[in-house]
Amino acid sequence: MNQPIGIIDSGVGGLTVVKEVLKQLPNESIIYVGDTARCPYGPRPVDEVKAYTWQMTRFLLKRNIKMLVIACNTATAVVLDEIRTELKIPVLGVIYPGARAALKSTKGFNIGVLGTIGTIKSGAYEKALKSINRKVNITSLACPKFVPLVESGEYKSAIAKKIVAESLAPIQKSGIDTLILGCTHYPLLEGLIKNVMGNNVKVISSGDETAREISTILYFRHIMSTDNACPKHQFFTTGSSSMFSQIATAWLEQEIVNTETIYLGDE
Amino acid sequence: MNQPIGIIDSGVGGLTVVKEVLKQLPNESIIYVGDTARCPYGPRPVDEVKAYTWQMTRFLLKRNIKMLVIACNTATAVVLDEIRTELKIPVLGVIYPGARAALKSTKGFNIGVLGTIGTIKSGAYEKALKSINRKVNITSLACPKFVPLVESGEYKSAIAKKIVAESLAPIQKSGIDTLILGCTHYPLLEGLIKNVMGNNVKVISSGDETAREISTILYFRHIMSTDNACPKHQFFTTGSSSMFSQIATAWLEQEIVNTETIYLGDE
């Protein structure tokens, strides 16, 4: 089963999942689609997020993927169940992996969730956490300023530091012991977030946890690549291919030069 | 799907899995069987381990379990594949979860594995790790003295400290950055093991990681208990029920009084 794993995101955020897959599953091939031109999904109406996510999904289905990973929390929140029902291949999101990792980590069962407006409004993390443990206390916070910071490459600046501190103020003294970064862009701000929240709060990256779940499902479905596979990775964006390649090269710490720009609008 | 999850082990070691399931999956009911009378499995011939594990499995199948967890590394190593092929319900072992957690944790891809003679001789961890990442370096070490220490309750004594230090000497300077406790008994010695290995080695409990995999498979198979389930837990041992209850109460930090002794020999 040396077919590729399809990974989709609203932009470059899903590369945090790719990075962990490259590390944890080096025999696997990846096809990534980032809908950079229409990013962020967070503030968009549900129907738009659904339509865009289906466009990326159909693009990848034509390329014979063996598994689909929706590496965008907003898209997972609104359309994972629908796509899973329609497709024959396994379809994974990023919300349950983050919820599971948080429930393993927490000691006091007080868990915080950061996400886009769309993700927080959907209540998807609350639903996931409560379906596993109904007694857990959850404090959610939408951080609409974080994705634009990351997509613009400004995520290490003094402005970023200030925005992160201001955004997190409402939950800084909430008593949570575990904080889920419920957006695949947020790991880029992890250092700043940890500085604000302090050492007593364990920070969980939902995207990065997803690689373990991918590994589990590949194994249980008997679709792992063979250990002599020659993995190939392909990257597609709806935006600028050179800007995507540049960001991907920096984040993945390996040269990515073959990004192709695609148009998804009419598919 | 409020049926119980069946968990089997050669003795009390699998309670480290139970503890994590109680914490991470509080809506789930558990039936546990510990083959204390015939523990340890580590030094036994493969055919014997297979026969004993099948006896526990058949005992639980009569009790309508929805999933079977082989919470014993030795049994996982020699009979997981066979039982998985025969049963219609999902069957989980403890080796792949430990391998996955180690591959997520490692930075230098130098991973150590501690286990019983049976587990180490089987090469099951090497196979699991290499099937996921063929370039990983693995240093394995059998620690036949650890299980008797734990089963006898001697795991906090000065003798335990000495035995752990002596046993780990061969891998203390091996350059590993991650160490898998490839036996569900070993987490009881975790403090002593960490003291010997130092802060630069991340210690992974394969059993305790298994609870996350249980959670993943329950979700993907649509067999999670409903969130208003009233979970019930049952414990069976082939040895002394009072001694089992005493150890279970101490490890699980909640009173376990209803352990029943069973005889599996002729099943």
TrEMBL record, chains A, B:
Name under which the protein is recorded: Glutamate racemase
Active site: C72 (proton donor/acceptor), C183 (proton donor/acceptor)
Alphabetized InterPro entries for the sequence: Asp/Glu/hydantoin_racemase, Asp/Glu_race, Asp/Glu_racemase_AS_1, Asp/Glu_racemase_AS_2, Glu_race
PANTHER family referenced in this protein's UniProt entry, alphabetically: GLUTAMATE RACEMASE (PTHR21198)
Annotated keywords: Cell shape, Cell wall biogenesis/degradation, Isomerase, Peptidoglycan synthesis
Family the UniProt entry places it in: Belongs to the aspartate/glutamate racemases family.
Reactions catalysed: L-glutamate = D-glutamate
Domain of life of the source: Bacteria
Annotated transmembrane regions: none
Keyword Isomerase: yes
Enzyme Commission code(s) on record: 5.1.1.3
